[in-house]
Write a structure and sequence with these properties.
- With 590 residues, this protein is an alpha+beta fold.
- Among the domains are: 219 residues, no CATH class; 167 residues, no CATH class.
- Helices cover 31% and strands 23% of the residues.
- It contains 14 helices and 20 strands.
- A seven-stranded antiparallel sheet has the order 2-1-5-4-3-6-7, sandwiched between helices. Strands 14-15-20-17-18 form a five-stranded antiparallel sheet, covered by helices on one side.
- Strand 4 and strand 5 form a beta hairpin.
- The termini are far apart.
- The mean pLDDT is 96.
Length: 590
């Protein structure tokens, strides 16, 4: 371990104040974007990220209210842009704005487009203000920017922007803007969101200059080093508290369950975590090989690294225990990631990656399962993964597109039940209100409810999934990516596995069917309905140890049935919803 001590140019209090100011700048950038954006995926679901990055490409701060999978990759975006521009012999100049979405140069995947503003102080480049967001369409194979599960390579996934200047020294580069408008469906929404991103990133740059002006460049840079070193010390201390050793786990993703080739389905994700002193190596050797012509491959930088870092940080440095933790480059320094080239977790270009969302979240769950061996009281049981549907249609030669993220659920935890119907781990997006959907789109939400009587039984039960039904009021189509139809969330410490996800298309003509977790663009007619059944989290601890009164409350609330209470928990509840304590004691003894 070689952590620099506090710089003599700055004291700890000043460094902490500057760190707080950096965090507030990033948060302000995020809120500005939300209020200026056009699409619900940003405005309501908050599928965006904002951050500040130093000249070396190290993260200084990120927006706390945004999605970890958006904020976390921002330093990688910057490093990718720096590398590409250096190879071209290009330089950053005041007034420049650079657009970037290269999944093999730091970006999470193609629809997550980043806008980077170089920050100059007294004519010297000192940092970057950057903001990323998921866009409704990026000119891909079919309408929308998710569920493009039949993309055969990176070129089928949409427009690729590799460090492209949209503004040069304050002047719009108009040909690039023309290309955007001419090649993207719902271009008014998408380009409007992009302009909002640029405005928010510029605000971040202005606030950063004001901060440096207040304290001076020397103190500012020393404070940044000090706080990154502080975060590194916290992570090293947390790792050092674990016993040295190697801890492993394997989970599986559906892949393409309806594919005739077994190489496309039931694919393993393997994690082996080695702890030695205050350092950790996360080795993904054994993970399935990349799929050359299907887009469930995960970029090593932008998806895999974020899944690992976020999970390790959440487990080892839980804010409920440790308080506020500055999120910056220092947290990732003690963690090394190993992923064999050519596997799902480190694909080779031009392998497609647009549907990396769900397998990446499952990888985070696998890291959690490996850490459960060494930190059992700090993890949750298996999580229920997410689903994303791109709804779309055509009106008078004009497309409409809507992206809906369907919640998963958390597994039970030590002392707490799993959270119901929420986005999990690195996703962390927000629920899209029904009122917003129905007031803007030809869709009607017929059902939105908790999935009853299906959750992993345990001393602390798993979270409940949701059931949502979407009816088309006009002809249209949909593309879908999801996970967890084949493999339920894992139970832990004697808890039961959770419940698998499901998806059904009920046709107006009565010819509907059950669907796999991934569906390429499919035409639907007015009156057709998608019924989405969310997964239920795994249980934590032996169900027999759950307090009978808690079981009674779950029955009273309609979350589980009287039969489930008896069969899974050994708790006998009468028809008039009273606890039969004598019968319960006998049942549990038996």
């Amino acid at each position: 371990m070689n952590i620099q001590k506090n710089s003599p140019a700055v004291d700890h209090v000043t460094a902490s104040v500057i760190q707080g100011a950096l965090e507030n700048i990033a948060i302000e950038m995020g809120y500005k974007l939300m209020r200026m954006s056009y699409s619900s995926i940003i405005r309501e679901s908050e599928d965006f990220g904002a951050g500040l990055v130093d000249l070396a490409g190290r993260g200084l701060a990120e927006s706390a209210q945004s999605t970890p999978l958006q904020s976390g990759p921002i330093p990688g975006y910057v490093r990718g842009v720096q590398k590409i521009m250096a190879e071209r012999g290009e330089e950053f100049r005041p007034g420049d704005v650079v657009m970037h979405n290269d999944a093999y140069a730091g970006a999470s995947h193609v629809p997550d487009v980043g806008f980077i503003v170089p920050v100059f102080y007294d004519g010297e480049l000192i940092a970057f203000s950057a903001i990323t967001a998921h866009h409704l369409d990026i000119g891909s194979l079919t309408p929308g920017s998710c569920g493009i599960v039949d993309a055969i390579d990176a070129y089928a996934e949409g427009l690729q922007f590799k460090a492209i200047k949209l503004y040069e020294q304050g002047e719009k580069v108009m040909p690039v803007w023309h290309i955007l408008r001419d090649n993207i469906r719902v271009s008014d929404l998408v380009v409007g969101d992009m302009e909002a991103q640029i405005a928010a990133a510029r605000i971040g740059g202005e606030r950063l200059v004001e901060l440096v002006d207040r304290y001076g460049k020397t103190i500012f840079q020393a404070a940044c080093e000090d706080v990154m070193n502080h975060s590194e010390r916290l992570m090293r201390q947390a790792i050092a508290a674990l016993p040295d050793g190697t801890y492993s786990a394997t989970t599986y993703i559906d892949g393409f369950l309806d594919h005739p080739d077994p190489a496309y389905r039931e694919l393993p994700l393997c994690v082996s975590i080695s702890v030695a002193g205050d350092e950790m190596v996360v080795d993904l050797t054994g993970t399935a090989k990349q799929i050359d012509d299907k887009p469930i491959n995960m970029p090593l930088h932008g998806t895999v690294d974020i899944a690992v870092w976020l999970t390790v940080r959440s487990v080892l440095l839980d804010t409920a225990v440790h308080g506020h933790i500055p999120v910056n480059d220092g947290l990732v320094r003690p963690i090394k990631i190993v992923a064999p080239e050519g596997c799902l977790a480190n694909p080779i270009f031009p392998a497609p990656t647009i549907a990396r969302f769900c397998p990446g979240n499952q990888l985070a769950d696998t890291v959690m399962k490996a850490l459960a061996e060494v930190a059992p009281s700090q993890v949750s049981a298996g999580i229920g993964n997410l689903r994303v549907i791109a709804f779309s249609g055509l009106r008078d030669s004009e497309h409409w597109v809507h992206m809906e993220i369907f919640e998963g659920s958390y597994g039970g935890r030590d002392g707490k039940d799993g959270m119901d119907a929420v986005d999990t781990l690195y996703a962390n997006t927000r629920n899209n209100p029904i009122e917003d959907i129905e007031s803007h789109l030809p869709l009607r939400v017929g059902r939105y409810e908790l999935r009853e009587d299906v959750c992993g039984a345990g001393q602390w039960r798993g979270g409940l999934g949701s059931v949502r039904e979407f009816e088309y009021l006009e002809d249209g189509g949909a593309s879908i990516e999801g996970e967890g139809h084949k493999f339920p969330p894992w139970g832990f410490r004697g808890g039961n596995d959770g419940g698998s996800a499901g998806l059904r298309l009920d046709r107006e003509d009565g010819k509907g069917s059950e669907l796999p977790s991934k569906l390429p663009h499919t035409a639907v007619q007015a009156g057709d309905k998608f019924v989405c059944v969310g997964p239920a989290g795994g249980g934590y601890g032996d169900p027999i140890l759950r307090a009978p009164q808690q079981v009674l409350e779950d029955v009273t609330d309609g979350l589980i049935s009287i039969d489930t209470a008896a069969n899974d928990y050994g708790v006998i509840i009468t028809a008039d919803l009273n606890l039969d304590e004598a019968a319960t004691a006998q049942r549990r003894a038996d």
